From TrEMBL:
<dbReference type="InterPro" id="IPR051316">
    <property type="entry name" value="Zinc-reg_GTPase_activator"/>
</dbReference>
<protein>
    <recommendedName>
        <fullName>CobW C-terminal domain-containing protein</fullName>
    </recommendedName>
</protein>
<feature type="compositionally biased region" description="Basic and acidic residues">
    <location>
        <begin position="1"/>
        <end position="10"/>
    </location>
</feature>
<keyword id="KW-0143">Chaperone</keyword>
<keyword id="KW-0378">Hydrolase</keyword>
<dbReference type="GO" id="GO:0000166">
    <property type="term" value="F:nucleotide binding"/>
</dbReference>
<dbReference type="GO" id="GO:0016787">
    <property type="term" value="F:hydrolase activity"/>
</dbReference>
<dbReference type="InterPro" id="IPR036627">
    <property type="entry name" value="CobW-likC_sf"/>
</dbReference>
<dbReference type="Pfam" id="PF02492">
    <property type="entry name" value="cobW"/>
</dbReference>
<keyword id="KW-0547">Nucleotide-binding</keyword>
<dbReference type="InterPro" id="IPR027417">
    <property type="entry name" value="P-loop_NTPase"/>
</dbReference>
<comment type="similarity">
    <text>Belongs to the SIMIBI class G3E GTPase family. ZNG1 subfamily.</text>
</comment>
<feature type="domain" description="CobW C-terminal">
    <location>
        <begin position="256"/>
        <end position="350"/>
    </location>
</feature>
<feature type="region of interest" description="Disordered">
    <location>
        <begin position="1"/>
        <end position="25"/>
    </location>
</feature>
<dbReference type="InterPro" id="IPR011629">
    <property type="entry name" value="CobW-like_C"/>
</dbReference>
<dbReference type="Pfam" id="PF07683">
    <property type="entry name" value="CobW_C"/>
</dbReference>
<dbReference type="InterPro" id="IPR003495">
    <property type="entry name" value="CobW/HypB/UreG_nucleotide-bd"/>
</dbReference>
Amino acid sequence: MMDIEHDGHTHTNISHMEEDECTSDGPKVPVTILSGFLGSGKTTLLNHILNDTKHKMRFAIIENELGAVGVDEKILSENANEEIVEVMNGCVCCTVRGDLIVALKNLHKKIEQFDAVIIETTGFADPSPVAQTFFADTDISGLYSLDGIITVVDSKYILERLDEVKPDGVINEAKEQVAFADRILVNKTDLVDPSQLPVIEERIRQINTAAEIFRCSRSQVDPKNLVNIKAFDLDQAINYKPNFMANPKAKHDPAVSSVAFQFEGFLNINKLQAVIGQILDKLGSDLYRYKGVLNVAGMDQPFVFQGVGMLFNGDFTGQWNPEEDRDCRFVFIGKGLDKKSITDAFLRCECDEDLRFEVGDKVLAKTGMSDDDWEKATVVKLWDEGNPYRLALEENGEEIWAPFDDDDCIKKNRK
């Protein structure tokens, strides 16, 4: 097993773990499952719990990624010094349950480092097979107790998700997530008309009459209502799904896919802004969730982005770990995604950090749309806020950026 320290987290590569015999003489470790459709606010909630100081609990975090590239360790708060295990390339409820069991067993060897476990599932995970793990596997049931299932729903989209017609034999993940919840967070209430909230709650009650419902924005709910609550009810789970303790293989919507990609290189921030806008314009309504960490030329911090549909959020945040590669990685999840077109779009943003001009060089700068809009300028700085050059115009001393290092923006002054 290899542990790599990363921004205060320990990222454990579970593919190298050995499954050892596990025993426990102490109390069982409580486990909370965070569930919810893509983009509902699970990672925001997780950050909120980790940054809260009142509960005084230490958590081991198990992250699940749909896609072969992990990005959540950058999105999680850098102040949260918790153990992170990423279960990659699938959803916990089906293809990688074995990895989940191995991860839990190996985490227990470090029991002195944490008080509880939080599992953040992918948005396509039916929570029932995940919960089943804590009853069907004798080793796990002896080490851990399922404390509760917390489901986060997006106020703006939940009714659409619950009523979505699926092909025969394909589960409605959003409905399953609501049905098995012990606590339901109706999140992003600031994005809908207040009159919609009772309608949403009534629809939820048609599926789950027992769960406590919290209205919130930005997943802000007091963690005392979410962790260490001893809320999971096995009888309730069996009442909703009589075959809960069986071992079915979940069948997900085949139209939904993920595009995950990782590559080394620097990106030009101006090209990147244009590409992201084009992707959202073209795919917005079909994008369930996307997130990534990008290496932008001229910037010391990684550009971290995430979003749902047309709602995009991105900023330069945190620091690169000195021991990690400064690469670019992202995951897009949605309907009918073309991996080549998405990856090619990002690759077109690549640039070389080695520039053609030096500070002090006399150049011509493009200052307008006309072919004649060129002015004499001097290079005063290289790589300024993601732009290759900052220039001082010779005529009036005004400083401008040259967004690209090509002859369409900046060229040698031969006079």
